[in-house]
Write a structure and sequence with these properties.
Blueprint: E1 8-9, E2 17-19, E3 25-35, E4 44-52, E5 56-61, E6 65-68, E7 73-75, E8 91-92, H1 93-97, E9 101-104, E10 110-120, E11 126-134, E12 146-150, E13 154-155, H2 167-174, H3 178-187, H4 190-199, H5 202-209, H6 214-222, H7 226-235, H8 238-246, H9 250-259, H10 262-272, H11 279-282, E14 289-290, H12 296-303, E15 315-319, E16 330-335, H13 336-339, H14 365-374, E17 379-383, E18 389-394, H15 395-402
Parallel strand pairs: 2-7, 14-15
Antiparallel strand pairs: 1-10, 2-3, 3-4, 3-8, 4-5, 4-11, 6-7, 9-10, 9-13, 10-11, 11-12, 15-16, 17-18
Helix pairs in contact: 3-5, 5-7, 7-9, 8-10, 14-15
């Protein structure tokens, strides 16, 4: 094995790319698998949990790791694509050890684990060498003291806890993109998942729910009290909220819709009124809508909103009042690429693309796909018989409905030819 740093901290490696010998990225680091045998036996790091294309989690033995530095991990390129399944004798460093309450031998100090260092022993095995822990907070806004100690000085590392918190695991998840956070939450043990979900704020939980498989969405929402479940649904995009509510038992769905803010619930009910897999059911009712007197500067200011997806920010829709869906008559759409070439003080109405046909709400999924492909679009307006804008279908809405059921939890193909070679199991 080539030269590697003498010590690396596991939490800092989560999300790093994993490269093969040719320099091609084949996966991302998601967690580390360790064997915790006894307080007297130094914990051995068996391997990494890596995420490959399609969010499949696989096991990469540490014997396949050739180098780890602050920015990437290198492997031999020999990856076993079989889905990772945790064994009873194994513990996940990030998923299960972070936030575990431990003590320091010979003292009254206790705290929660916020990181763990690992390094190579003389045997070339990777082992846990140090534990970073934080004492409880002392008074208002005073963080507890932190300690980094040898693993042998720590007590309680082996013991699992019924009431284990989620502070430090939550901090790691908060740094991730919603799709990556969803992937980690999906693979957490049930108790840890519940603790993380309880600690996430409503907006962040909504972002994560949108990226989870349907069965996970229903399960998580089912464990929330009704008031919080309604609050989370309000934070979700209306089309995703409508899809999730449609999967719930009718009584539960009715209860949650009744607890939501009337305007938010109305958008969801309207989307649910359309036949499944039609433009009306797939659309978002909240595209960027402007009046006929809006300037190009106004349009550019609206699409700078960081909460807009790239596909929603690609078009602005110019309508007569009212400017909330269903709007007044749609006058046309303007492509942001075109607006960037025009003086900011001019009216958006002067740069409309009036040649493009609109989608009716009853358009099938195949018709929507053909429409976007024909006009080389990433979004398109959905308009009723009277010319009122009802919403917009984006290419990501379309893909969500066209991909096979359960696509979020399945791999479709390995990244590289090397990834198809058989790997080595964990010892």
């Amino acid at each position: 094995m080539s030269t590697a740093p003498s010590r690396v901290f596991a939490a800092r490696l989560v999300g790093l790319p994993i490269f093969d010998p040719q320099g091609d990225q084949v996966a991302k680091v998601r967690d580390f698998v360790v064997a915790l045998r006894s307080e007297a036996s130094q914990p051995r790091v068996l391997g990494m949990v890596a995420e490959v294309f399609g969010r499949r989690r696989i096991f990469v033995p540490m014997t396949r790791v050739t180098n780890i530095d602050s920015g990437q991990v290198y492997t031999t390129g020999l990856l076993n694509m079989r889905r990772f399944e945790q064994r009873p004798t194994e513990t996940l460093l990030i998923g299960q050890i972070l936030d575990r309450t431990v003590g320091i031998k010979g003292s009254e100090v206790t705290g929660t684990v916020f990181d763990v260092a690992m390094e190579q022993a003389r045997t070339r095995d990777w082992v846990l060498s140090r534990v970073a822990l934080q004492e409880p907070s002392r008074g208002f806004r005073r963080r507890g003291q932190t300690h980094v100690v040898e693993w042998s000085e720590v007590t309680g590392l082996i013991r699992s806890e019924e009431s284990q918190g989620a502070t430090h695991l939550l901090a790691a998840i908060q740094e991730m993109r919603p799709a990556d956070a969803a992937s980690m939450i999906h693979d957490l043990p049930p108790a840890r998942r519940s603790a993380v979900v309880a600690a996430l704020d409503d907006e962040r939980l909504a972002d994560v729910l949108e990226e989870l498989p349907e069965e996970d969405q229903v399960e998580i929402l089912g464990h929330l009290d009704s008031e919080r479940a309604a609050d989370v649904l309000e934070e979700m995009s209306p089309d995703d909220a409508a899809d999730l509510i449609a999967d719930l038992p009718p009584e539960t769905a009715a209860t949650l819709l009744g607890l939501m803010e009337p305007e938010e619930a109305e958008d969801v009910r309207r989307l649910m009124s359309y036949v499944e897999n039609t433009a009306g059911a797939m659309m978002t009712p909240e595209p960027v809508i402007l009046g006929p007197d809006a300037t190009i500067a106004d349009a550019l200011a609206h699409v700078r909103n960081p909460e807009l997806t790239p596909s929603l920010a690609a078009l602005v829709y110019v309508c007569r009042p009212p400017l909330e869906t269903p709007t007044g008559k749609l006058l046309g759409v303007a492509h942001i690429q075109r607006l960037l070439r025009e003086p900011p003080s001019t009216l958006v109405a002067g740069a409309l693309d009036v040649s493009m046909e609109n989608l009716p709400p009853e358009a099938s999924i195949d018709e929507v796909a053909a429409h976007l492909a024909t006009y080389n679009l990433v979004a398109a307006p959905v308009v009723d018989d009277n010319g009122h804008l009802l919403g917009a279908v984006t290419v990501d809405d379309l893909l969500d409905h066209m991909l096979p059921e359960g696509w979020r939890d399945r791999a479709t193909r390995p990244l590289t030819p090397q990834a198809r070679r058989p790997g080595v199991g964990r010892g």
